[in-house]
Specification:
Layout lengths: L1 H14 L8 H6 L15 H17 L3 H20 L1 H6 E10 L6 E12 L5 E11 L5 E8 L4 E4 L1
Antiparallel strand pairs: 1-4, 2-3, 4-5
GO molecular function, one term: lipid binding
Pfam family, one: PDZD8_N
Protein name: SMP-LTD domain-containing protein
Length: 157
């Protein structure tokens, strides 16, 4: 009975209320959709679909704090492994990530080839290897401050 009362309340309060006016200026803050130029379209329409999906995700996530934390964690892990390697222990004392950027333009894939796949007991894809041919203009860059064991400091971009 309480469920029916809640449903009736929601129906009457929202069904007969005036429509919500959306602020038209809010739409201007979002970047418009950029179709792929003709010379960058792939031969396979599936690759174009991946490009459009990746372009959407890139625009949504490129400046998010979640992506920045993820990339910082991955870079930090890789640089710790480098420092703890045999050569790293001889030369590198410390590596500090000064800044990084994923770029302003989304990578554009021209070809995607599935090399192999591995399926689990339910016949679902567990792992796959794909070759991607991409053009990444104005791509990822990172600036590092590196302290060497013999006292020298350098900055690497």
């Amino acid at each position: 009975a309480s469920t029916i009362a809640v449903l009736l309340y929601l129906y009457t309060s929202y069904a007969f209320s005036p429509p919500v006016v959306v602020n038209e200026q809010e739409d201007e803050q979002f970047e418009t959709f950029h179709p792929l130029p003709e010379n960058e379209r792939a031969k396979n329409s599936a690759v174009d679909a991946v490009n459009y999906l990746f372009q959407f995700l890139f625009q949504e996530l490129k400046d998010s704090s979640r992506l920045r934390r993820y990339l910082m964690h991955k870079l930090d892990t890789e640089f710790k492994e480098l420092k703890n390697s045999r050569t790293g222990k001889i030369f590198v004392q410390n590596i500090i990530i000064q800044s990084f950027s994923v770029g302003k333009k989304c990578p554009i894939f021209s070809d995607i080839q599935l090399e192999r796949q591995e399926r689990d007991e339910r016949n679902l894809i567990k792992e796959f290897v794909a070759k991607l041919d991409a053009d990444y203009e104005d791509g990822f860059f990172v600036t590092l401050d590196i302290t060497l064991l013999f006292g020298h400091k350098c900055q690497l971009s």
